[in-house]
Amino acid sequence: MSVYAILNNWGEERVNLVEQSFKQLDQVIEKWVEETDGTYFDGLIEVLHIVLSESEDKTNEDDLVTEVKKLNLESLEKEQIRKIIEFATLKGLKDGVQTQHLITPDIIASYMVYLIEKLVPKTNTLRLFDLVSGSGNLLTAVVNQLTRSVQAYGSEVDPSLIELSMLSANAQKTTIEFFHQDSLQPFLLDPVDVVIADLPVGYYPDDIRAKSFKVHVSDEHTYAHHLLIEQGLKYTKEAGFLLFVIPNALFNSDQAHKLRELLNETAHVVALLQLPPTIFRSEKDAKSLFVLQKKGDNTKAPKEALIAQLPSLKDTQAMQNVVAKMNQWFEQTDYSN
What we know:
Helix content is 43%, strand content 17%. It is of the alpha/beta class. It has an 8-stranded mixed beta sheet with strand order 3-2-1-4-5-7-6-8, sandwiched between helices. The chain is globular.
């Protein structure tokens, strides 16, 4: 499936159903907020718990349970359910949220799916790990769109986000194993075929833990996003792939030399795709999709990495041109399946 098809396969009827269902969900959550004086985010989690409840005892149902059951989310497709929960999550996180808790735009998931389908041969079940899974939206979006069997894992330290991610995956009937932990601590996980992550940008406060990483710097806190790249490489199989959403200035910092040394030693750069600036709040927040292959006995770097500026979805001609360019690049490399 081409990335253009992935990004444009929703008809008006499916979109309208998602919008209508979200409005109904939103009304139920707002009613819960009004009655309990709780937060919208907590209301979303409470509603999803009710959606997934298997109780058939209707004699003790309160008004909230009755309203939730009217939503009938289980009758919708996986991606429709994900979108509805995504809209509610965005509203719940809107006020006072930290940058790293923003939801990854869906266009990024679609590009990841395109790249994974092109890069990874369809042999056995694909093992996929989102190193910083947050609300689970990016991970479930990728899993839902892949056209193969997937064994998925995610990691998140925030208790509310990990709870939401588990509820969302269960509502979509998407099987994912989640780790509730700091993503820079060791995992009880065998290396996977593909690691994905929308990397949170900033310093990692645990200097003792950071010392066990090659990108560690001694004169200040080490960048968490550098440490996460190294952690991702550790849990990727030889010849496996890593797809990171990175800040455009990743290699311009005073710690970048340590990251370059790590990548030169352990990975091949496959692609650097600058994401459309229109999907970010400001130019300084703009990011790129950085694709690596972990070195192995039979791997080699491409003659030229795939470099592209990805256009806005609204620019149909530019989209078609960049997809054609990417398809041509894959046809001329050893990665083409």
